[in-house]
Design a protein that fits this description.
By secondary structure, the chain is α/β, with parallel strands linked by helices. The chain folds into four domains: about 220 residues, Serine Threonine Protein Phosphatase 5, Tetratricopeptide repeat; about 70 residues, Alpha-Beta Plaits (2-Layer Sandwich); about 110 residues, Rossmann fold (3-Layer(aba) Sandwich); about 100 residues, Hypothetical Protein Tm841, Chain: A,domain 3. The strands form four sheets. Strands 13-12-9-16-14-15 form a six-stranded mixed sheet. Strands 2-3-1-4 form a four-stranded antiparallel sheet, sandwiched between helices. The protein has a four-stranded parallel sheet with strand order 6-5-7-8, sandwiched between helices. Helix 15 links the parallel strand 5 and strand 6. The longest helix is centred in the first third of the chain and has 22 residues. The protein is globular.
Length: about 550
Amino acid sequence: MTESTPTRLDAAGLLTLLSGGAEALEVNLEAVNALNVFPVPDGDTGTNMLLTLKTVVESAQQADGSTLTDVARAAAHGALMGARGNSGVILSQFIRGLAEAVEGLPHAETTQLAEAFAAGGAATYRAVSNPVEGTMLTVMRRTGEAMQDAAPVAEDALALLEAGLVVCKEAVLETPEQLQVLHDAGVVDAGGQGFSVLLEGGLLALRGEDPTSIHMENVEGLGHVSDSFLQSVEQDVFGFCTQFIITGEALDPEGLRAAIDALAQSTVVIGDTRTVRVHAHTLEPDMLLELGRGVGVVDKIKIESMDNQHQDFRAARTDGPPAAVGVVAVVRGDGLEGVYRSLGVEVIVSGGQTMNPSTEELLEGIRSLHAESAVLLPNNKNIVASARQAADLSPVPARVVPTTSLPQGIAAMLAFSPVGDLDGNAESMAEGAESLIDGEVVTAVRDAVVDGAQVRAGEVMALLSGTLAASEPTVQEAVVALVRAAEPEEGSLVTLYWGGDVTHGDALIAAEALSGVTDDLEVEVVYGGQPHYHYLVSIE
């Protein structure tokens, strides 16, 4: 806000509003995240809003032009491309609606600013397939309506924003009365509170005050998630938070929203005829990706297990006695994380091939365990040494089971006993890992000699226990070659953990092709979500 134009919001003022909002949200990040239980921990509301807002600010700072229209247009583009999570996508749609309302304006007078906020709130409702009152949608809408009511008497833009903030805060505190899940959990809506923090931080920045002076812990009525609520939803199945961008020609956001809503829940679809961002919750993320690929190019795919997020959230609040032994595992892949969680892994460190975690990251995983001792599963030969260093530095007794693949780690977890002691678990888990034959199917990215054999870029390698068993022209041929090379006994179980660019349908076809390798071969298909590798394979 420039001192010479106190009644208006100009380009500099909009940038200050957004930047101040980001600063305020960042210092209250964990407090906003801690509120988030609607409908389950879907990423972290505060984190998703902040990362979205930071992209918005960066884009606005690089606007081609210096008018309000220029900055708002750049902010809207950044919002579309950088939106993360349900809350981030909704926030991005608010910013886009606001930007459309100020299109063509060098600056916004109070009435125009009020209309822009109201337009932003209305845009969020259009983006969501089934708008629910008591969420951030309600908070945004009521804020815009309050500003419209105040516009005729507001002295300047600051007074107008103050009037909107008063109602914004009231709307947040009323969300538990509108939404039963919030009432049951004992909290206000996390997205609505995040928007309130954003607006207040922006207002402080426009006044020339410190936006980081806002502290949510000083606010009465926000509540905290009750343990009884977390226990009541412990057995719920939440599925996968699936996000991606579609680019193409003549895209139809409305039609896509309807099609995706028929396959998923919590659907938010925004964009235009050239770029569409999708957010949805589903048990079958691949079906949404296939739908997207049918109309354009799918990019920036992000699939997160909300079941895992709920367990993380629940574990973070554990205040009971520590377990005798806890497990830290290095895992990469949404589906595989879910498998490890279901088998009893308490802490997952993200990493694996091409992304090896450091000793310090593994040590931090041990520190975050709610246990008196720790077992580490490195699940990659390049991580074993770092895991042993972390175990040596551990504040609690720790052992490394030197697993070199994710299927080996799963076999180890099948031998884990939560009531056993550390040494006994380490021994039995190592035996479990050694009992497994495992393999990988991955496309060669360059010409190379592997285990004495020439492999060309684009060929699909079948690696059995780390050694090249075959290189084939197609992924399916490589899977069959891998299992044949393993010479499974009659009645063996083969598990295909699919990821990379493989679809669920591809995996089912591969499983069918394996049925003839040997008599009574049982084949299971499990979503792994691992990058780069088409399949991780276990044979037992």
